[in-house]
Amino acid sequence: MKQKRSLSMPMDAQRITSREIANITGKPHKDVLKAIRAMEPAWEKECGRKFSLTSEMIRMPQGGVRMIPVFSLTKTESLFVATKFNDEARARLVLRWEQLEFEQAINEHLSHQPQPHLLLETERDILQRSDEIRQEQIATQNAPADGCMTTKELAELVDMSFGKLAKILVKEGLLIFRGHHYYLSENYSGMGLAQERVYQYYTLKGEVRKTTYPVWTRLGCQKILELVAE
Fold first, then answer.
1. How far apart are CA 227 and CA 175, in angstroms?
2. How far is CA 106 from CA 8, 30, 140, 185, in A?
3. First to last CA, the chain
4. Contact between residue 17 and residue 71 where contact means Cβ atoms under 8 Å apart
5. Is 101 in contact with 16 (CB distance < 8 Å)?
6. What is the pLDDT of residues 88-122, one digit of tens each?
7. Between 20 and 30 A from 200 (CA), which of 42, 64, 156, 229?
8. Quick one: how far is CA 21 from the chain centroid?
9. How far apart are CA 147 and CA 218, in angstroms?
10. Burial grade of 154 (CB within 10 A; 0-12, 13-18, 19 or more)
11. Which stretch of DSSP H or E encloses residue 173?
12. Is 26 left (phi over 0), alpha (psi -120 to 50) or beta?
């Protein structure tokens, strides 16, 4: 007989409510509640606990307030529930968790600084440290892509411009061009041809943005070289 896995969690583990999930994913809160309740039995069977149910006060359109039931979920629980969502909704939830974890990392860093140092720390120092934390997170995310070659590096290897090689890969169906960026085609995902590498950049307004692009494994490089040689 399969045993339940009892998972413990820190008391200060970050949580997100079902209402927040509804706002992030653009789904009606009642649909999010329905999805959570539908998946709770499987979670309880595997983990030995139900999702945390609480309540939240909301303002009514005609005035007044009332209490409504909401679930309070950890990152793992919310991403488990999100497996029933579409790709865009899941992506928005993942990005929200990334933002929450980054904010927590900043707060933890600041809370561990001696008070006199905090008083002397300038806004520039804080921004620099924030950027360092982002870079550390990106380096961790990019670890699986270490040793892979970019499309530009491959283009130089075969004495071809990046644009020409990219057009060949789009024509052959390996890449798709969307929103000013190239992405690995879904037809070739999961085949070990490429890894995703995260790239951070700043807008003209100084806002931090991130995007991903494919880099090629040894197997992917071999396939591309065969395509070019044809």
1. 13
2. 25, 34, 17, 35
3. 57
4. yes
5. no
6. 888 888 888 888 888 877 777 766 655 555 444 56
7. 156
8. 14
9. 9
10. buried
11. none
12. left
Tell me how far apart the alpha carbons of residues 35 and 51 are, in angstroms, rounded to a whole number: 12
Mean pLDDT for the stretch of residues 2-19: 64
Enter the tokens of residue 98: 């990334």
> Which amino acid makes up residue 179?
G
H or E element, residue 60: none
Q: For residue 175, which amino acid is it? A: L
DSSP code string of 174-212:
SEEEETTEEEE-GGGTTSSSEEEEEEEEE-TTS-EEEEE
The 10s digit of each residue's pLDDT in 25-84 is 889 999 999 999 999 999 999 888 999 999 888 888 777 788 889 999 999 999 999 888
Residue position matching structure tokens 């085609």 = 185
Mention every residue, 6+ apart, whose C-beta is less than 8 A from residue 135.
Answer: 200
**Whose structure tokens read 């982002």?**
134
Nearest to 144 by CA among 225, 215, 90, 91: 215
> Which among 127, 142, 122, 129 has a CA at the least distance from the CA of 200?
142
CA–CA separation, 211 and 181 (whole Å) = 8
Element (H, E) at 69: strand 65-74
Which residue type is seen at 21? I
3-state helix, strand, coil in the chain (%, to 5): 55, 20, 25
Residue position matching structure tokens 């999702």: 51
